[in-house]
Structures are given as C-alpha cells and as structure tokens.
C-alpha cells in the first residue's frame, strides 16, 4: 500500500497563530496533492490542492507549500480562528494512471484545535 | 443540492445482525468508494467501484460486501455485524478528468454505526 505520512496527529494553537501540518509521500508518480477539511459530524470536504509544478499555492488564509525533491508538502493556516478547528487530511494521487480505480491515498489526519 | 447522500445517519445493531448502508450520488460520477473512519486510523478504504458493474476490495474488506446497483447507487452490506465494525462509514464519489485543474472526492455526511 502506497503511503502518505501525516504529522502531527493532533495540534493545539492559539487564535492568530499559524498551525502547520506536514505530509510526506513515497511514490514519485503522485502528481496531485489535495487537502481535506472535516468538521465533527460531517464528511471531509476538499479545501485546497496543489500540483508539483509549483512550490506554493494560496487560497485565502490557507497555503500549501510543496517540496518536490524532499517529497514533502505542508498546509499552513494564517491568522487561525476557532472556526478552523477540524480534522485535516492530506492526500495524493497520480492523475494520469490513478484516480478512478486507485483513487486518493490519504494521510491519517491531524486533529487541529484553535483556542480562543 | 448535488452531492452524495447516505442513509441512515445513525444505526445501532446487535452482534450478528445484518444491515445495508445506502449511498447515492447525483453528479454522474463513475467511481464510488466506501471508507470507514476510526480514531487515529484515518480513512480506510473498504471497497470501491471504478465504474458501473465493477467492484474491488480496498484495504479492509473483511466482513463487508458491496453492490453497485447502477451508476448512482453503491451499497455496503454487513452480513453479520461484529463490535469491531463499530465505526463511522463514509461513501464518496469521484470523476477523473486527467487534464483538469481539479480532482477530488465528494463525500457523504456519514453513517455512525454502533454494534453492541
């Protein structure tokens, strides 16, 4: 089973701080890296995604940093708010040969708490 | 609203009972998936269906069966429920657009199953 390793498992940050969640992958054929956000009692929802041809992508307060040589990518949340408290999953896929049948490979998730 | 609908939302079973979890999507996606989510274990793939008429085992298929009834519906059956199957179950669907800027899963809101 191809793996995506995610850390930390849990994270507590004060409001306004910048939580950082890290993921590392093994399969160099992965070419699409999404992040999912899950609130209690809900299913995961796509938050932001990046392709390996760029080193950074920003959408609002959420930023993905990508290091192709290290096979690592991370999620940063700027000016974090209590409403960002959720579980975050990183994932990876090879969009050419994967998707469909093989689908996304998920990290194990990070439970993030933003304290007021 | 377009999306993935799961029923029921909650269920309590006695050990040995059987039940079927229902999932339907209205986005005309080809691929559908069943995951279970347990604390600290992330999302684990039970079964998937790459297209109508096909199903394949995922990471944790033992104790489950699936049916891809048509393109819209993908059901998960527990023939003889065990306490180890207490979990939150998520259905998801996806469509792979190889040259698209975006690819991801749409998840249902989950079924919380307790086996006593």
> How widely separated are the two ends of chain B?
35 Å
- The strand count of chain A comes to 11
SSE succession of chain B: EEEEEEEEEEE
This entry's quaternary arrangement is: heterodimer
- Beta-strand percent range of chain B: over 45%
Please give the largest β-sheet of chain B.
7 strands, mixed
Order of helices and strands of chain A: EEEEEEEEEEE
Beta percentage of chain A is: over 45%
How would you sum up this structure, described in words?
The complex is a heterodimer of chains A (116) and B (116). Chain A is mainly beta. Chain A has strands spanning 4-7, 10-14, 20-25, 33-38, 45-50, 56-59, 62-67, 72-77, 86-92, 105-106, 110-115. In chain A, strands 2, 4, 5, 9, 10 and 11 form a six-stranded mixed sheet that branches. A five-stranded antiparallel sheet of chain A has the order 1-3-8-7-6, with no helix packed on it. The N and C termini of chain A lie far apart (39 Å). The mean pLDDT of chain A is 91. Chain B is mostly beta strands and 116 residues long. In chain B, strands 2, 4, 5, 6, 9, 10 and 11 form a seven-stranded mixed sheet that branches. Chain B has a four-stranded antiparallel sheet with strand order 1-3-8-7, with no helix packed on it. In chain B, β4 and β5 form a beta hairpin. The model of chain B has no long low-confidence stretch (mean pLDDT 90). The relative contact order of chain B is 0.33. At the A-B interface, β5 of A face β5 and β9 of B.
What does the secondary structure layout of this molecule look like, with pairings?
The complex is a heterodimer of chains A (116) and B (116).
Chain A: E1 4-7, E2 10-14, E3 20-25, E4 33-38, E5 45-50, E6 56-59, E7 62-67, E8 72-77, E9 86-92, E10 105-106, E11 110-115
Chain B: E1 4-7, E2 10-13, E3 19-25, E4 31-38, E5 42-49, E6 56-57, E7 64-68, E8 74-78, E9 87-94, E10 106-107, E11 111-115
Parallel strand pairs in B: 2-11
Antiparallel strand pairs in B: 1-3, 3-8, 4-5, 4-9, 5-6, 7-8, 9-10, 9-11
